[in-house]
Amino acid sequence: MTQGQRLRQLANVLNTSTPLGLALAGLAGTTTFRGPRGLIVATGYGWRLPLAGAFTVGNVVLFRADADAAMTSPVLLGHEERHSTQYAWCLGLPFLLFYFAAAAWSALRYGDPASGNPFERHAGLEAGGYLDRRNTVDGRRMDRRHRHG
User: Fold this and answer.
1) Which of 106, 111, 119, 124 shows the greatest Cβ crowding within 10 Å of its Cβ?
2) Which residues make beta-bridge pairs with 63?
3) What is the CA radius of gyration of the chain?
């Protein structure tokens, strides 16, 4: 691990987001193991919410998929790793408030929780499996010459 990854790991333990992620993983009956770059991977998440195929709480990345599928998704794992860094920068659990406020604004503005959400944009929309709907009308890309507003 790099020094930055170790710092993120320590920050997310101290800000309680990683312990919360581990508690959630345990309550949900997942299988956990050490992942790359200081992450903890939890697989077999079966609770209904959130709807995502993967999500992060601190340094814990929870996947609906099994371990083989989770570890063969390096692009998605990288996306989730960027969220773990966002937890550290936001001092832990305040990240959730900021994230959900940004997701709500994005849903109101663009019809989905990711397109206008700076946390998802910074983590990489496509890497997270999202489409960028900021420049679309009825799901179709707009030609730059025909944009209004």
Assistant:
1) 106
2) 54
3) 16
